[in-house]
Amino acid sequence: MEYLGTVLYYMGMAGKQLAREEIVTVVKMTLESKGNEIMQTIAEQWIAEGYEQGLEQGIEQGIEQGIEQGIEQGIEQGIEQGRKQTLQANILTILELHFGRVDAEVAKRVTAVTDTNTLSLLLNQAATAKTMAAFIRALGKLA
Q1: For residues 94 and 124, is the Cβ–Cβ distance under 8 A?
Q2: Mind listing the pLDDT tens digit for each residue in 83-141?
Q3: What pTM value is reported for the model?
Q4: Is the CB of residue 91 less than 8 Å from the CB of residue 110?
Q5: Are 9 and 45 contacting, i.e. CB atoms less than 8 angstroms apart?
Q6: Domain spans, the chain
Q7: CB 83, CB 123: distance < 8 Å
Q8: Residues whose CB is less than 8 angstroms from the CB of residue 138 and which lie 6 or more positions away in sequence, other chains included
Q9: What does the DSSP assignment read for 21-57?
Q10: Cβ count within 10 A of residue 4
């Protein structure tokens, strides 16, 4: 009986070549009294295999989704950072064109601003300010 159980176990493992219904029918016909017990063992193996396959597929899908989301977030953050740096550089360029050399302290304060809305307002101030002092006052109010 134990030998037959081992044989059936290996048959179950080779289930891709044998139809499960065939195995069930042969076992039930051959071992009317022990067939159900053996078939429960085979069924448990099949359930375990299905669980393992499902788990592996779930992990793979989770990893793929995580990578995609990470890439999207990275791209969005890169675009936002580039926008901030461009606004900061444009403010300093406009100030330099209007008023000549920009003091290092003013440049430091402008580049310390990271909010894009505030930087947009400062860009407008840089373009319309009559003096560097007027821009510095606006910088103090906005930043």
Answers
A1: no
A2: 999 999 999 999 999 999 999 999 999 999 999 999 999 999 999 999 999 999 999 99
A3: 0.58
A4: yes
A5: yes
A6: 2-142
A7: no
A8: 122, 125, 129
A9: HHHHHHHHHH-TTTHHHHHHHHHHHHHHHHHHHHHHH
A10: 13
